[in-house]
Write a structure and sequence with these properties.
Layout: H1 4-23, H2 29-41, H3 45-52, E1 80-86, E2 89-92, E3 101-107, E4 110-114, E5 123-132, E6 135-140, E7 145-153, E8 156-160, E9 172-181, E10 184-189, H4 196-219
Parallel strand pairs: 1-3, 2-4, 3-5, 4-6, 5-9, 6-10, 7-9, 8-10
């Protein structure tokens, strides 16, 4: 007879392996959801083992990109790059070169991509995100043009970024695509070194100044 402790431990291992399998593109989101439901409902170790039998052994830890590792500190501008975190935290900030195509997956974790001091090439840079049971924050500098096309299922997509009306021909444009399931995506604007609280205060002052200018124009 399987003990409850052994069943609980194996369930946690299977859920972690399923999440990693999703991050490795071995499972799509629908299949991940289906197997997670079965994992939570399983009453025997055999039922749990069957859910990961076709996934093979777990990937080595270096395949993941938790916060503070050197795996994401590549100074060259690669055409494509993938960042993945499962049951952990991912952070990219400061001075860094953004590849032309960046794929970021957060599964049961959280991530921050800070573009305020990042180097983007002219034209379109595509960030494809996949957030499942997690949170991802994108921090942008003021004036960066952005195009957001993200689907959401039982998740939240919050965008607080003012896009230039007519971007210059050679101006960088950040295109954000992908999906959020049972998680959150937040896109905000801040000056370098500015906290979220300071940004809200600055935006409030700017709105008041803009309202004051409009009133003066109307009265004139």
């Amino acid at each position: 007879m399987t003990s409850l402790v052994a069943l609980r431990d194996r369930r946690e291992q299977v859920i972690a392996r399923l999440s990693e399998g999703y991050a490795q593109d071995l499972l799509d989101v629908d299949e991940l959801d289906r197997r997670l439901d079965l994992a939570h409902a399983a009453s025997t170790v055999a039922e749990l083992d069957a859910l990961v039998a076709d996934l093979g052994p777990p990937e080595t830890p270096t395949a993941l990109v938790p916060i503070g590792t050197r795996a994401i500190d590549d100074p060259s501008r690669a055409p494509r790059k993938k960042l993945t975190v499962v049951f952990g935290n991912l952070e990219r900030k400061g001075t860094w070169s953004v590849p032309r195509e960046l794929k970021t997956r957060v599964v049961f974790g959280s991530g921050v991509l800070d573009f305020r001091e990042a180097s983007l090439g002219p034209g379109v840079t595509t960030v494809t995100i996949g957030v499942t049971f997690g949170n991802l924050e994108l921090i942008l500098p003021p004036g960066l043009a952005i195009d957001v096309d993200v689907s959401s299922l039982a998740g939240n997509v919050e965008e607080r970024h003012r896009v230039p009306r007519t971007p210059e021909p050679d101006q960088p444009i950040l295109r954000v695509t992908g999906g959020v399931r049972f998680g959150n995506l937040e896109i905000s604007t801040r000056l370098p070194g500015e906290t979220a609280r300071d940004a809200r205060r600055r935006e409030k002052r700017e709105r008041k100044q803009l309202e004051g200018s409009r009133k003066q124009l109307k009265s004139g």
